[in-house]
């Protein structure tokens, strides 16, 4: 009925080289409503992931993440939850 995807999308987009819009589309397709966390590229965890590789992720950004959600669902609410800018996005695709 719902999905909670916390600290997850960056592992697929950056860790596994999957396009951010495809990751979001897949997550939104799993459930009609839910909450998904976006982790900024400046976050220390993402910086560690990028430390040993070239940053080929020009399209990895919060505006691109929001646009990907809005192609499939409505954003009901968003909230910053950390000093590093991690944000939660509640969506509904009904």
Protein described:
There is one protein chain. This protein is α+β, with helices and mostly antiparallel strands. The chain contains 4 helices and 4 strands; from the N terminus they run βααβααββ. A 4-stranded mixed β-sheet has the order 1-2-4-3, covered by helices on one side. A hairpin with a 6-residue loop joins strand 3 and strand 4. Helix 2 crosses helix 4. The longest helix has 11 residues. It is globular and about 40 Å long. The termini are close together. 23% of the residues are buried. The mean pLDDT is 96.
Estimated helix fraction:
25-40%
| Number of discrete helical segments | 4
Instruction: Give me the count of strands.
Output: 4
Main sheet strand line-up: 1-2-4-3
Basic shape = globular
Main beta-sheet annotation: 4 strands, mixed
Structural class: alpha+beta
- Low-pLDDT segments: none
Distance N terminus to C terminus? 11 Å
Average pLDDT works out at 96
Q: What portion of residues belong to β-strands?
A: 15-25%
The ordered H/E elements are EHHEHHEE
Measured on Cα atoms, how large is the radius of gyration? Answer: 13 Å
A few lines on this structure:
With 94 residues, the protein is α+β, with helices and mostly antiparallel strands. It is built from four helices and four strands.
């Amino acid at each position: 009925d719902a999905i909670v995807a916390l600290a997850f999308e960056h592992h697929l987009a950056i860790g596994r080289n999957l396009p951010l819009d495809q990751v979001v589309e897949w997550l939104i397709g799993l459930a009609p409503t839910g909450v998904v966390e976006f982790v900024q590229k400046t976050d220390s965890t993402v910086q560690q992931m990028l430390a040993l590789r070239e940053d080929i992720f020009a399209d990895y950004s919060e505006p691109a993440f929001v646009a990907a959600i809005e192609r499939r669902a409505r954003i009901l609410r968003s909230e910053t939850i950390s000093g590093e800018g991690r944000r939660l996005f509640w969506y509904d695709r009904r």
